[in-house]
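Support request, please re-run this one:
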Amino acid sequence: MKLTTPRWWYERRPRTAPLLRALLTPVSWIWAWATARRIARGRPVDPGVPVVCVGNLTVGGAGKTPIAREIARRLGAAVLTRGYGGSLAGPVRVDPERHGAAEVGDEPLMLANDLPVWVARDRAAGAVAAAQAGAAVLVMDDGHQNPAVLKSLSLVVVDAETRGEEWPFGDGRVFPAGPMREPLAAGLARADAVIVLLPVGLDAPDPALLAQLGDQTVLTARLAPAAPPPPGPQLGFAGVAKPWKVERALADAGCRLADFAPFPDHHVFRESELAWLARRAERLGAGLVTTEKDWARLPPAWRTRVAAWPVKAVFDDEAALAALLDRVRAR
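Re-run finished. Output below.
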């Protein structure tokens, strides 16, 4: 299913789409009940190695994958992921030379360029396979609501960007009436720490957000360019949960955006769409730029025509992060 994230999910005061919100609210109660029941009935499998789960409380777009990549890099860990959008059920180790996004998913293919990555729809089977293949530590990208694997450390990533009435948890409603995968209190109760991802220009989380997080251990991080945007005018495009954030980030990084085209999350670009983008860029006298995740889904022939703009997670308090990860190293 392609998910285009509604902006009204993130409004603190539910003024927009009131009828739709009301119609979806009973469905959200069923979703929350089913999630809580599944978690309570879970029997986690211990793969024999430490597992760090990097998850979130909202549906898509929290920035957990760059956080997972950075933590895996620091721990020398393998990444375990479901491989959303890929056809392979796994467990399988991703080989960028042999696999494509259609087989393993865009994010695993992106991560496999510099980390060992395992894809498995059955997370427990994937964790065991990775451990048997020699992984000493696993970082599970997503899975805070998945009880299949015993977690040594559970981290929740919160996107702290707030502009106008936008708010990380909206008005707190659960999917599909809002962005929450589960009620906030329930998700926080299973977390060892919260990583608040700050946007450019914000030095600290909103005090109201910190109040919502209660007595949780909170670390702050931000996404920073791993390389400057390509020079000259650019036509940007992205098929992610919050494409407007990519547009903002490119502009904040100094990219001369002539135009920007949003697409649904994990969108598989058709030849006709890419040709349209190329013609539009030519008329504007611009190049084409997209995210690493979107670039991984491009047909090989288009990868030489589109620039991939990489970002990385940078933590504000290195000592606090080291102390957190030392708990994993000690095991």
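The CA atoms of residues 78 and 135 lie 6 Å apart. The first strand starts at residue 51 and ends at 56.
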